[in-house]
Amino acid sequence: MAVPHGPASVGVARRRLRRDLGDRQVPEPVIDDAVLILSELLSNACRYARPLGPLPALGRSARAEVLGQVLVGVPSGATAAQGAREPAEGPAEPAGGVLVRWQLHADGVVTLEVTDGGAATRPLPASPSLTSRGGRGLSIVDQLASDWGVRDAPGEVTVWAALPARARHARRTGGDARSA
After folding, report:
1. Residue 88 is inside which H or E element, if any?
2. CA distance 46 to 9
3. Which of 46, 62, 99, 179 stands 20 to 30 A from 11 (CA)?
4. How many domains does the chain divide into?
């Protein structure tokens, strides 16, 4: 998905991921974990990173789905029309967005990626105090994902996570008496 750089994009991406993985008959606990991971990665991108340059319009309408793939395009100019609130103070950011990708591989692993324009620091798990209001996102990703990391390219940074769909489901339902 190409989404506007802003908090309203998180809900759009979450709903699309949940629908897509459900259509692919991924177990619900895995979908929940994937949605949480994507939420954390995309929220961090929108909060801390710069947007990518202007994203091209991907079709005839504001939401152009590319058939046969997991991609949905939302042009960067769609932010105001979708009701996202932009800060009133300061100069407006140049139009831009964030790229969100996911894939269900044949081996049952779901990979999730969020690509943005980078930030002043690299994404790292924090160690917040018990009373801190934030700072736990990448620690959550680290606990849920089998692996995660950061890839750099000129003008962009991609944070990715891998989630074992089959193994996670088996581990959760196998030893958890509450799931019976």
Report:
1. none
2. 9
3. 179
4. 1
* DSSP label of 131: T
- Hey, what amino acid is at 101? R
CATH number at residue 47: 3.30.565.10
- Residue 173 placed within a domain: no
Taking 60 as the threshold, does the pLDDT of residue 180 lie above it? no
Q: What is the DSSP letter of 77?
A: G
pLDDT-derived band at 177 (thresholds 50, 70, 90) equals: very low
Query: By three-state DSSP, how is residue 167 classified?
Result: helix
Backbone angles phi, psi at 30, to 5 degrees: -70, -40
Q: Which domain holds residue 149?
A: 2-62+94-164
| One-letter amino acid of 72 | V
Q: Is 179 domain-assigned?
A: no
Q: Are 170 and 158 in contact (CB under 8 A)?
A: no
> In sequence order, what DSSP letters do the residues of 39-70 get, joined into one string?
HHHHHHHHHHSPPPSPPPP-SSSSSEE-TTSS
